[in-house]
Write a structure and sequence with these properties.
Its EC number is 5.2.1.8. This is Serine/threonine-protein phosphatase 2A activator. There is one protein chain. This protein is mostly helical. It has one domain: Four Helix Bundle (Hemerythrin (Met), subunit A) (Up-down Bundle), CATH 1.20.120.1150. It has 15 helices and six strands. Strands 1-2 form a two-stranded antiparallel sheet. A two-stranded antiparallel ribbon has the order 3-6. Helix 3 crosses helix 8, helix 6 runs antiparallel to helix 7 and helix 10 crosses helix 11.
Length: 386
Amino acid sequence: MEAADHQHCSQSPQSPSSPTSTVSTGTCCKCGGPTTFPPPPPSWSESSPPPAYRPIRAPAIPPDTNTQRAIILAPVPQAQKVPVASPPYFFQTPSKKIQSPDDIRHFQDSDSGKNFLGFVVALSESIRGHKISDPCHQSDTVNSIVAVLDSLIQWVEEIPPVQLAGRYGNIAYRTWHSRLESDCDSLMLRFLPEQLHSATIEIGPYFMDSFGNSSRIDYGTGHETNFAAWLYCLARLGLIKEEDYHAVVARVFVRYLELMRKLQLVYNLEPAGSHGVWGLDDYHFLPFIFGSSQLIDHKYMKPKSIHNQDILENFSNDYLYLACIAFIKKVKKGLFAEHSPMLDDISGVPNWNKVNSGLLKMYKAEVLEKVPIMQHFLFGWLIKWE
């Protein structure tokens, strides 16, 4: 057999200046034969082998100081009234429009973008100074939505997780989500009046995208924002009125949060786009906004009260912010300042008013102005791409 007619290749040959040095051998990348060039360094050291599973999520990058300063200097978003759509209706299947930072700016400058954020602020203000258990006006629409969410919670009981070795992504969640897709229209018809039955084509996709992604088996602030957008669409249709906002937070959103906690724990949903320890939370943002509003001007509880375990145990059922902290401490081990440094920093803010205004500005900057999140946001006739 003829000798190989190529030269052995290597990325980093040894320096010829030390002929007496020991020559390490590697393997030729073309013929597999021995070579006098050193082998390339391994991707993983023997003392640190590659993990069996690497979650798909954003790297944990420390907050950029310029971004933080911009958030601090930004104006506090203000509440806006939602304009109610009037007939004739032109409902359509909503679609994705955002692909670049220019698209983000276009949306933020549009009436739809400003009004949607104004709706979130109005929800936040509606719960100010109120406990979850406080009585509030509950319309038939609100009660019907709560009943829909109760049905979704019951489905989790009926669809148990399968036994898997992986830490994240139980495939039983896909069965749950498939049932959501097949029953979505009938769920919408539970509260839509007859003259608005045709709205299912538009509001259904927002609802289906509010509980995570079935192929990736993940959930994050983008899905949560779609739920807020679904509620905004119902406000645009006049089904949710301003007098309902208190109940929308204290009854509807609280039940939605209960459902999402259950889905996260039972099916081990991957955190979508989590920033690791440098993020506010792996999954949620809005309950921190609503929860901080609840505690504004509270006589006893201050931002630093989150470090008091007795307060968390006794009051987390009535205050969303405390419930979020209690849940984080339940699912994460170690020092709170190490696994949740941002929330630990916020606990040093002097009052809840500043916490709430800061979180609203942060939500706009870190969620509504981020392409990786908003590229999945939907636009139709109720939320127009202008």
